[in-house]
Amino acid sequence: MKDCMIYGKRNGKNFKIKFDFDKKEDYLERLSDELERKNNYTLEDVERIYIKEKVLPKNEDNNGGIKNDNRK
Questions:
Q1: Torsional sign, CA 16, 53, 25, 43
Q2: Is residue 6 part of a domain?
Q3: Is residue 49 part of a domain?
Q4: How distant, in Å, are the alpha carbons of 10, 35, 49 from that of 41?
Q5: N or C: which terminal CB in the chain sees fewer CB atoms within 10 Å?
Q6: What domain of life does the UniProt record list for this protein's source (predicted)?
Q7: pLDDT tens for residues 11-56?
Q8: How many domains in the chain?
């Protein structure tokens, strides 16, 4: 999963759009869909695009999976 942040300007107003996409997904196609869905922006309105890997939290068992059995 990746995060995409788009910054742009249209008619003198700045805008910012954020969305997530899968690694298998074509981000340019998803980008144009998101722009069109939000106030009919176009690729010409976009100034900057930032894409970064989304870090998902890891589920940790108690002490990293180490089980302590202190029963005697």
A1: positive
A2: yes
A3: yes
A4: 8, 5, 14
A5: C
A6: Bacteria
A7: 899 999 888 888 787 778 888 888 888 778 888 899 999 989 877 6
A8: 1
